[in-house]
Amino acid sequence: MPDDLAIDWGSVRGLMGRSGGYRHELALSGFTPVASGELLNISQARVRSRQIWSPSDIYRTALERGRPDLREVVDRAVQALAGQRSWVVEVSGGLDSAIVAGALTDSQRARVTQWVNHFVDDPEGDEREFARPVVERDGYRLTEVKREGLTLSAARLARSADSFRPPVNDLDTDYNEDIAARVQSSGAWGSLTGQGGDVVFFQMPTFLVAFDEVRERGLRARAEVLRGAARWTGQSLWPNTWLRARRAHHTRMRDRKHPWLDDLKGVPPAKAMQILGLVNGQAYQGSAVRSRHGPCVNPLLSQPVMEAGLAWSSVDLAWGGRDRYAARAAYADAIPPSIFDRRSKGELGAFYGEAVARNLDFLRTYLLEGELAGAGLLPQGLADDMTREALVWRGGFSRLLTLALTEGWLRRWQARIAASRV
């Protein structure tokens, strides 16, 4: 450990304002973080940094290189990462995990030890009817796991607190424990997911797509694209819509610190929003208990797939105001029709709200008497918001879980720092 190892409380304060977001900076002094695509030269005299790969460069040079074939890139990436190993494959019932399953070869599917779907006792959180056809069409059986709640304790939160950043990828403790156990019991190498596809393939409904059309095509902007963006977001084409979208974009991008966001020159708003999503998506690559017995691999967040999604215009990725249109079209013959046509998305807000509500007694003590409280960093009025009614009806469960993970991380690192001083 560095001699000057300490908690950077200013950076911790910044974490509090970005619930669940990925940060490049560390809340620990004495370390130098290195971003993906960054070349760092360290000498006794100085540290020099240069970003030799960035999402904005991929977008800006797309016209020179030509737009890649999405199906070809995704197939090659998924198959290369899967290799000849055995895997637990997560099948959520959504498009992205169906694409990963559809990209595997027949021999790779035969090596899958379990096709896993987690569901809750609530129609909005039960996606088994969409997940089953993904595996049954190839003669396999879906392993269906009913969720009962969340296990929260000081010991459980400490289990994933050794990483250099708070483990936001461990937000769903029981889900990650279950996947880790299945990897171990089935003898799999690790787990495969579809995480990241919502950003790479552009699922985010936003009027900013209309801005991209105008920025990229100028006077040749197509009226049907503008109307499609309005339908997608349920807004009109009057000037107020454009102004609101622009203001919201500036607010979203303000104070976001990451090397991938340092140079967005020539990048239109919806594409910038996608890059911000990819920054936040790096959290999926972070520490989590799910990786205890084998790696968690997210093929749709691999460099080739990210570059393919960046090279496509947001207009074409979401053509006609349809989220992930290009990905749907590319895999039309490899995914069940029910998923191709699906416009809804599973919703687990009520489940998580109730699950966290059951742990309120623990969370009150853990947070209100912890390191964050001692440093005066807990959000104002948090104690009043920690009620069952507030969680079930107004949400806020993700904020409490993120705070708990951060508190566990702080406690672990405070102990490590104290031990290093002995």
Structure report:
There is one protein chain. The longest helix is centred in the last third of the chain and has 25 residues, at 397-421. It is globular and about 65 Å long. It has 422 residues and is an alpha/beta fold. Strand 3 (38-42) and strand 4 form a beta hairpin. The model has no long low-confidence stretch (mean pLDDT 92). The protein has helices spanning 9-16, 55-60, 62-65, 70-82, 95-103, 106-110, 128-136, 154-158, 173-186, 197-200, 208-217, 223-233, 239-253, 269-281, 303-311, 314-317, 325-330, 337-340, 349-357, 360-368, 371-374, 382-385, 388-394, 397-421, and strands at 6-7, 28-29, 38-42, 47-51, 87-90, 112-119, 142-146, 190-192, 296-297. The strands form three sheets. The chain has a five-stranded parallel sheet, sandwiched between helices. It has a two-stranded antiparallel sheet with strand order 1-2.
Broad structural category: alpha/beta
Q: Are there runs of 5+ residues with pLDDT below 50, and where?
A: none
Largest sheet: 5 strands, parallel
**Helix content range of the residues, please?**
40-55%
- SS summary, helix count: 24
Secondary structure tally: strands = 9
N→C terminal distance: 13 Å
Strand content: 5-15%
Which outline best applies?
globular
Determine the mean pLDDT. 92
Strand order of the largest sheet: 7-6-5-8-9
Rounded to an integer, what's the Rg over CA atoms? 22 Å
Structure keywords:
single chain, 422 residues, alpha/beta, five-stranded parallel β-sheet, 24 helices, 9 strands, 49% helix, globular
